[in-house]
Specification:
heterodimer, A: about 100 residues, B: about 600 residues, alpha+beta, Beta-lactamase, six-stranded mixed beta sheet, five-stranded antiparallel beta sheet, about 25% strand, elongated
Chain lengths: ~100, ~600
Amino acid sequence: MLFRFGSAILLAVAISLIGIGLEKESLKLKRQVSRQHYQLEVLINAHAKMKLATQRAGSPGQVLNSIERGELDVKSNRRPASTNRREMPLLQWHLNRSSKANKK
Amino acid sequence: MHSENSKFQISWRTWSLIILVVLSWIVISGRLIFLQYIGHRQFASVVARQQVCKEKIPARPGDILDRNGRLLATTIVTNSLYMIPQELKNQKNVSEVCTVLSINQEYFQDRLKKNQDKMFLWVKRRLTDDELAGVRSLNLPDKAWGFRQEYRRKYPQGALAAHALGLRDIDGKGQGGIEEAFDHLICGQNGHRFLVRDAHGRVIEVRNDAREAARNGETLVVTLDSIIQLYAERELESILEKWRPKSACAIVMDVKTCEVLALASVPTFNLNHPENISETAWKNTAIASIYEPGSTLKPFIVAAALERGLLKTEEQFDCERGEYQMGKRLLHDHHSYGMLSVTDILVKSSNIGMAKIGERLTNAGLYEAVTAFGFGQKTGVQLPGELTGIVRPLEKWNIYSTGSIPMGQEIAVTPIQLITAHVALANQGKLLNPRLIRDQIDHNYYPRSHEEPEQVRPLVSTPVISEEVADWLVSVPMVETVSRGTGMKAQLEGYTVFGKTGTAQKPDPQTGRYSSQLHVSSFICGAPAHDPRVLVLVVVNEPSVGPNHYGGTIAGPPAAEILNKTLMYLRVPFDKSGQKPLRQMTDRPRNALR
């Protein structure tokens, strides 16, 4: 009788402990997910800031001003440099549809 | 016996205690039943309200890219400083914050006094990195001061294409330009999540089960090209400096697709400093200003007359030596002309010759011609604030109109209407809607689907005149206008340019009559004439310096300069005979921009 009672108590305690463990694990995973969401936002923002800085540094206005001030050693052409269509692959990485439309 | 009875007799004190305990249990049980069953919902909602709070997840507005993927507008996260006036203990902090953030201290103290019993007050929104570092170095107490993150719109190209882009206000709402017209796409859709807080207000759990993710805004690819836009804006700046006009605008269009490659207007403003925008600078004169087009309208009248068979290209007109009585009105030409061909009427911009063509068309024909080319109605350029121009109802036209309309008076147009109509001439008589949006992609720059989104679908093309008439007008009179007529200053070295000058008198606000001092000078040109690729319109409103304000003198050279640079940039081959073939030029040094 005593053995059965003890077993039942032990079983109940074990189930409770497993439940608590699972709950803890679940909370830990939730925290991780939240942290990853936050980190993703931080990364997206860092990416946006870097993109902004690079685009600002390489903006046509900046480059043209540098040419006019003589900081860049380039001359302007008096005739078209080529008849090939101008491509800017670095800027068009993901603009697939527009590029396809142009090729057509 | 007595002693036995007294042994089992319970004293009144004991009874009192029992009753007290029982009553207490009844009260406690009653209270528990009330809390658990009767008032359960009410208390549960109070607890939920105190513990769980709904937090908005703001959607990130989409970027705007030019046709080559250059970034025109993007969004970054910034911190905004707020304070809790009730918790403010140290006034010294206020003066320190005002110094760091360059806020007028008196003004802020006044605000603080008015809101001293409030739990929230914005100090400054969207701090710069320097301001943020400055505030952080003050080590302000957390109880009274705090930061909130907000999105801030940034325009890496500064003032470039300011009117076409527009901006987003402090609340993230699009104002003017593409930002306003496509606000519903760019702004995205806010999401929300539920946070569980403890008794101290600290977040202990983010409930992801009831979370609705924010849908970030769409990224738009516009038809503008930053470099062509820059060329246009720089020419406008030089016009401002040289001729000191009230305003000026320039539009560059791709003839084949009617895509707007550049749309510039001065005075302009820096998109990153909206606080400095004046009312005059805010107006996009390319779409929201109207003027009498003058001679730039003449090709359309000739086109309509040719199309109806009322005029032949080889016909000659007597231009009456510069004076022509039309009803009660005496018409004048700038110079005295005798017999002029149709080509010469356009080349020399003869008002009398045009009035005679107008007489053949009659008012009904003239009205039909101007409305067919889209005057008096919006072009649908997808920008807010576009005006329709003014084409009075036909019933109000009279004999004056028969003389005035063919010379571009009694009608008011917007620059975008005029260039769109000229694109129809250059595009073999097909009238297209101007396009400003090229594509719509997601925030990672991937196309949403393989199908073109609704706002970038191919446009309606309406044939307004025949190919033969359009080709003749472009390749003969408009080419000769540049080679030997009023537009001679727009000639280019390697390209056959076609164009038309316009010098419209403006009414004097004091007398109500046409002024001899106030003009709108314009010039529209394109090239190469045999297969037009690009069209440029420059409109200069009220130039105030110089002996004359002819369109060919004021607007011609800058328009030609923009055209030349654009053609070179787009690598359009030279079309004039006598030029070296392109393959012999491949050893030329390459330029970063051309």
